[in-house]
Each structure stands twice: as C-alpha cells, then as structure tokens.
Amino acid sequence: MFAQIFRTKPIATETDSGLKKCLSAFDLALLGIGGAIGTGIFVLTGLAAATQAGPAVIISFIIAGVASAFAALSYAELAASVGGSGSAYGYSYVAFGEFFAWVIAWILLLEYGVGAAAVANGWAGYFIRTLTNFGFSMPEAYTKAPSLGGIINLPAFSIIWILTLLLISGVKQSSQVNNIMVAIKLTTIAIFLAIAAMNLNTDNWHPFMPFGWFDTLENGKTIGILAGASLVFFAYFGFDAVSTAADEAKNPQKDLPIGLIASVTFCTIIYILVSGFLTGIVPYTELNTTSPVAFALTKIGYTWSSTLVATGVLAGLITVLLVLLYGLTRILYAMSRDGLISPFFSTINPERQTPVRIILLCGFVISIVAGFIPLGELAETVNIGTLASFIMVCVGVIVLRIRQPNLKRPFKNPWHPVIPVLGIISCSALIAFLPAETWHRFLIWVVIGIAVYFSYSFQHSKLRKP
Q1: pLDDT of 16 over the 60 cut
Q2: What is the pLDDT of residue 429?
C-alpha cells in the first residue's frame, strides 16, 4: 500500500488530449496578467495599507513579488520539461507520487474555487456601486447571501454562469475576451496613475512604516510589512493558471516559461506603482474600504474618474474570474483523466474541444457558493494554499534534477538550486506570518481531502496495480 500511494506518473510524451492547441506566448502572458491583476490591486491594496503596513505596503508587494518570481522560475522549468494541464498537481505526480499529487490538487481546488467565489463577491460589490453611480439600484434582498439578511447575491451568482458559458464556447473565444478585458483594465490603471501623479502629497507617506515589520495583536491578528506581504500575496496567485494551459498552448515548452515569467514581472511593477500612488494621494488610514481606488479618486475630487475606474475594475475582476474558472476546470480535467475523480468528467466535446461536463460542474458549485455563502475571512485560506503549492513546485524542481538528471529541459533555472531554495524559504516565511485561524481552516481542508483520497481516488487511480 505504501508503494502504491507514492507511485509516480511517467512524463507523458506528446499526446493528443483532445483540447484545442491555439494559445500563443502572448495569450498565455495575458492569461497570467488577467488572473493576477484584479482583487489584489483594486481591493487588497487599500486594506493592507490601512490595517497592516501603511505606505510601506509597497515593500509588502515587493516581498510577495520576489517570492512569486522564485516560484515562477520553478514553474517555468517544470512546465517546459514535464508539461500537462494539471499545474502543480501534475508536477507533483511526477516528482513525489500520487498521494502528494492528490494533496496538492485538493489544495489547488481550494485556491481556485474559493478564490473564484471571493472574486465574484468582490465583483458584485463593484457592480452594485457602479449601478448606483448611474442612478440605478438593485433590491437589497438580491445583493446579499441569506445569512446576511438577503435572498441571494444575484450579481455574483450570475457572473459565474456567464463566464461558465463562455468557457464552454471554446478556449480561443475565452482568450480573446480575456485579452480585451485586460486591455480595458490596463487602460483604467494608466488613467489612475496619470491622475494620481498630478495629485501626489508626499506627506501622506509619513510615517512610512507605522506598523513596523511584524507584530501579533492580542486578538491574534498579525500586522506589519511581513503580515501585509502574506495578505497581498493573494494578488499574485492567478499567474500559476498559465501552467494549466499546457495542453492548449501552441508550443508549451517555449511559450509557457515566457508567459509565466512575463506575467509575474509585469504585475509586480504595476502593483508597486499603484500602491505607491494610492497611499500618496490619500492618507493610508482612510483606505480601509472595499473599493480603495475609486474612493481615492472621489476623495481628491475626480468623481467622473471614480466611475470610470469602477467600470474598469469590473472588467478587471472578470478576467480574474475567467482565469480562475479556467484553471479550476483544467486541473479537475487532469485529475479525471488520471482516474482520481470520476472519468465521466474527462469527456471532451468534439465540436467545441472543451471539457463541457467539468465546466458545468464548476459553474454550478462556484455559483452556489458565491450566491448563497458569505466568504468573509475564508478567502484568506486561499493564500496558504497558494503558498503551499508554490513550495511543492520549488521542491519538485530539486527532486527531478536529482531523480532525472537527463530529462530534456528546454528552460532551466539559472544558479540551481539557489532559485528553488530561495522560493521554498520565502514562501515558507510568508506562510508563517499568516494568522493561526487560517492555519486551522487549511488543515481541516487537507484532512477532508485525505479522507476523500482513500475512500475513492486510491481505488480508482489508473496507476493502481492489482
């Protein structure tokens, strides 16, 4: 039994997965940017500045960006050499064996699933405020979950189904919509930066580090630059969705590394600029709001710009949602293909060349969570799941260099093993700065996943030997 739960999956040769190979390196880079620039820049920036780091949230973003860069380089090596649409799940299957692969897959389901529901709630909030700015309003009962006194969060529920239908239509169509939305989002950010540059007040940057580097309050809440880095790390987790697109990339060995590294680099620069300008035009103490960018522009008198930014935010969060749903469906597709979940879901629609059944399942579950369950602090659990998967990818690079030194690696990390080791250290440190309650929820989720593995996946794995 011990040998079977740690059975490794051979590296697949070029096979026809049934998915359409149509994504270029440019498409993949925009996929990563679409997944990363969203909630983190438009929502978490103000929250982290107001409650954890002050103007030094800039440093928080730099720290999180450096950790993500180490992980991105490790992802790039494995994406080019191992491939497959399962992201860290597939890499762990090859490097560590089935049990660890399942645990990572279970964590990724939390990352993408809860992340998508959280972003849908954030999008709904911006959508409702934008309607109000234009003189329209929705009945309050249709903007809140039942436990908050409403009937359903209808905007959050609806946007999930709209994007689900888009994913069913085909990956090329989804990519084109993503590219358009990313362009709108970046235009919005450019407008904000231009206006902010003309209204900077450097006095707002003093004190620069009001919460210090790190501290734990009596209620267990963590504050400081390092705690802020752990929080804003949520802003980076979308980039790893690029690695789930291996089966649909035109030239995965070349295009995946380019898409991964380009998206992380670009996003880090944007985060630093936006967080710096945001805390430079409004005192950080006033930014504890769900729409800090729009609030800041309104505060300095640009009401029309606030409405424009809110509209751009809607487009931005749609790309995040689209990428998260896409990544979730491709991970589950890979698991179904390996027999770890029902093979019923690995069927590809021959006309659309998409896994329609798994897309519909994801749309149904995520829309129910987004529409009827207030997530609250549950979204913080996404960070620990993302960091855990990044650590496993970094370890996987080292393990495969030892176990399979002759493996063809179109992209290799420079200065090995320095890059993956630094990735392990930095991501582990960020996990350590997360609140204890986040750890408790995470461990409960992992235990549930292990129970599911031994009750179904262990018996139905395609690698299982009689």
Answers
A1: no
A2: 84
